[in-house]
Amino acid sequence: MIPFSILEKLSFKFKLFSFLLLFGYTFMNFITIQKPEAQITGKILNSNGEPVIFAIVRIYQNENLISEVTTDFNGDFIIEKVNPNIYELVVITVSCDPYFQKDLKVNGNEKKEIGVITMNCISEKEAKKNS
Length: 131
Known about the structure:
By secondary structure, this protein is an alpha+beta fold. It is built from 2 helices and 7 strands. It folds into 2 domains: 1-34; 38-123, Immunoglobulin-like. It is 28% helix and 41% strand. The strands form 2 sheets. A 4-stranded antiparallel sheet has the order 3-2-5-6, with no helix packed on it.
C-alpha cells in the first residue's frame, strides 16, 4: 500500500502540472490568434482642393479585393484591420479618372498614412457638355 503523504505529493504535482499545461496552452493560443492589424488612412481631393465624397477606396492583393471603403464628407477614408502585406490601392469615383497606387507596403500594426490624393476630375460644365 502507498503511504498517504506520497499520494498527497503526487496529487499536488499532478495539479500543478495540469495547471501549467492548461495555462501554457491558453497562452499559446492567445498569441497565435492575435494577428497584427494595420490601418490605412488618407484624404481624396479634386483638383480644386475640394473633398471628393463617397469615392470608393479599395485595396487589392494579387488582383483579389481585400477591403473597400468610401470617403466621408471631408474626403477622408480609413481602411481598418489590414494584415501586413503589399497591396494595390485603387480609388474610383464618378466624373474622375481612377487613381492607382501599386506596391503599397503595410507593416505590422502600422497606421499607414497615404496623405492627400488629388483626383483628376471633370467639372459639372464639362460633364454637361459631354452628355
